[in-house]
Every structure is written in structure tokens, then in C-alpha cells.
Write a structure and sequence with these properties.
Blueprint (H helix, E strand, L loop, with lengths): L3 E5 L7 H6 L10 E5 L17 H7 L8 E5 L5 H10 L8 E6 L5 H7 L7 E7 L6 H12 L15 E5 L18 E6 L2 E2 L14
Helix pairs in contact: 3-4
Length: 208
Amino acid sequence: RLRKLALHVDGPDIPPALTYTLPHLSLPVLRTLYLIAPPAPRHSQPPDSVFPHLRMVLKALPRLPALSHLHMAYGWLDERFLASLLALLPYPGAPHLTLTLEGPHITYPFLCNALRGAGRRIRALALIRSDKLTAEALVDVLNRLSGVRLQSATNLHPAITALYIRDCAGLDWRSLQWLTMAGVTLKVWENGREVDLRYAKAKKTRFP
């Protein structure tokens, strides 16, 4: 039984053969789903364009009752598609899903719209090459998902308990190190290498 599945689309849109094949699959024990696309060429189209017919994939996907890791990249990153996909996933008790988002599409409005109501499902959030996202915006998203201000709350259980940041140029991760005191595991990678946070100087930042 399939436990990992990668759907890699190289073209400008979802091929019809994919939406025809998906309904014929049975994936009761699938744990990891990769929805992969390459970065858009610089001069051919906007770098944050998405596949036009993602709704067809949503209709064709079989049930994913065991999914615990979802990785979405570039052309797959449509906020309505992600919100609808998350709504289809079960949430058995505690949050269990590790959500990885890769590409310049990831902005504050994107996360607010795509993750609205998803706090009961997401355990960990990983961001890769999300250059438009700032630390302040990310903290606000975490607060919204947890239903409290993590900066001032005590003895709380944040909705997202792990945050992974990889090569996000616009995100000052040093100002997020206090999240570890709020119960959030923080891991950071720069230029392909994991940063040892024990020796990284934290930056004091006042968040509203």
C-alpha cells in the first residue's frame, strides 16, 4: 500500500491525464503527499503564478485519511486550493499534519486565507524560499491559529508546535527565537545548512 506519493507537474497547467487517474487510486494509508512544480522561469510568467485548473485536482483526489505530511510548491500554491484541501483532511484529536509550503507565493494574506480554521489539523509549518513573508506577519498568523497572543500568554498550548524556516530571505528568524519559550520548536536553514540556534544571537523585536 502506497505511503508516499509525489505529483510533479512541469507544464503550465495540470495535465488531463492526472485528473483522470486520481479517482481510480485508493490511498487509505498514504502518509506523505508531495505536490511539486518547478519555479517559474523569470521572463516567461509571473513568479507567483499558479496552475489554472487546480479545482479539478480537488474534485479528483481520493480520500486521504492517514495523511500526516503535505508538501506544496510553486504552481500548486493557490490559497483557495490549499484551504479546500485542508478542510477535506480529518483531524483525529491533536493536530497531526506537517505542512510544507515552498515558493514566493507565501505572503501574509495567503497564510491568513489558506490556513483559516486549520489550527486543529496543523502540527508543524515549514516555509521554504518564502521571501515575501516577514517575521511580524508570521507571528500574527501563529496567533490567529492559536487564538491567543503568544507574546503575552503563559501556560499555553500553541496550535503549531514546530516551525521550520529554510532560505526565507525576507524573514528575520532571529526575532522569532522567543517562540521556543512559548512551546514552539524552531529550526532554521540558511544556504542549505541548519543554523545552530544555541550560538545564534537573538534579536529583540517588539511585536504588536
